[in-house]
Write a structure and sequence with these properties.
The protein is α/β, with parallel strands linked by helices and 330 residues long. The chain has 2 domains: 129 residues, Rossmann fold (3-Layer(aba) Sandwich), CATH 3.40.50; 162 residues, 2-Layer Sandwich (Alpha-Beta Plaits). Helices cover 50% and strands 20% of the residues. It contains 10 helices and 13 strands. Strand 12 and strand 13 form a beta hairpin.
């Protein structure tokens, strides 16, 4: 906040300006002088004034025109203006002064005590406005901070810290929503469950830091291997789930095989260690002929995943129902 307010005083006679400044020298303010309308406009561009005290009768541009110009500019439209006049003090000119934007019209000779009181009043209003503006800015900063913190809390509540994927908590919500939608509209829904093969040996041989790096790299591979409409979750440890709305079994199986192949063909290298990893995958899909709940889809995919591991890992198995439970995607 400014330590001292600035007051603009305008009169074409320099002696009047000096006398005015001397009269109010006891007021803690900087009095900026101008001897013409154009000079006053230049000062208005340079300073932020608490008050403008204008003479009415001036050559080239009188006080009324100057007041209208000050009021017409957005930055100075709220600047309080007081007219001082020794000649024009009749009702017509006083009304013209108010019409041009003045807050007061004081005939000369004036009472120094009364004008000093008005100057102090507008200085106080000026600082109150600054305080209010700073308070509003602080509130806006606080609001932005709260919104950012809320967004961070939302991120923490729905995303896994390590991989940035959706977490298990969010899976429960998303699966129920997508399952309800598919039942309501008669569409299909598929779920893929994945488990990195022999992941424990990576942690044992290379350490947990490199193990975390592998999980993050595999998470990135998952995200680029699925559609933007698919939802990818870290289910726990080295297990992951992909939820595929409006996707039948065959489409889900193709996606799963794409993930398996991309994983098996790639190499994860952090500059210190390099490993090839594989993934075992279980797939299930829901349609209107099945009698199941949302949680059943995780159970069915888990059964298919178990079969993929039993069949030698690095495979995709699909759960198709009770009669022919499992099928291998080759």
């Amino acid at each position: 906040m400014a330590s001292q307010a600035s007051i603009l005083i305008v009169d074409d006679k320099i002696n009047n300006l000096i006398a005015l400044e001397d009269t109010f020298s006891h007021i803690d303010a900087a009095f900026i002088k101008a001897t013409s309308g154009n000079g006053a406009l230049r000062e208005v561009l340079r300073h932020d004034f608490a008050l403008a005290i204008l003479d009415v009768q001036m050559p080239e541009m009188d006080g009324y025109e100057l007041a209208r110009l000050i009021r017409s500019r957005k930055r100075t439209s709220q600047l309080p203006i007081i007219f001082l006049s020794a000649i024009y003090s009749d009702d017509f000119h006083i009304f013209k002064g108010y019409e041009s934007g003045a807050v007061d019209f004081i005939p000369k000779p004036f009472s120094p005590e009364i004008l000093a009181g008005k100057i102090r009043f507008f200085i106080e209003i000026y600082f109150q406005k600054i305080t209010l503006k700073e308070t509003i800015l602080e509130l806006e900063r606080t609001k932005r901070l709260v919104l950012e913190q809320n967004e961070q809390l939302k991120q923490l509540s729905t995303h896994d810290d390590l991989t940035g994927l959706y977490n298990r908590r969010h899976l429960v919500i998303s699966l129920e929503q997508e399952f309800s939608r598919c039942c309501r509209h008669g569409t299909e829904l598929s779920l893929i469950m994945l488990d990195l093969d022999h992941f424990k040996s990576i942690n044992d041989n290379f350490g947990h830091e490199f193990g975390d790096y592998v999980l993050k790299e595999f998470s990135a591979l998952l995200q680029v291997s699925v559609r933007t409409s698919d939802l990818v979750f870290r289910f726990g440890g080295e297990e992951f789930i992909v939820l595929l709305p409006q996707t039948a079994a065959d489409g889900a199986a193709k996606t799963a095989e794409k993930i398996r192949r991309n994983c098996a063909e790639g190499m994860i290298d952090d500059g210190n260690y390099a490993v090839k990893i594989t993934v075992s995958i279980g797939v299930t899909s829901y349609d209107q002929t099945m009698h199941a709940t949302a949680s059943c889809m995780i159970s069915f995919a888990d059964k298919a995943l178990y079969q993929a591991k039993e069949n030698g890992r690095n495979k995709v198995m699909i759960y198709r129902g009770k009669n022919i439970p499992f099928g291998e995607i080759l």
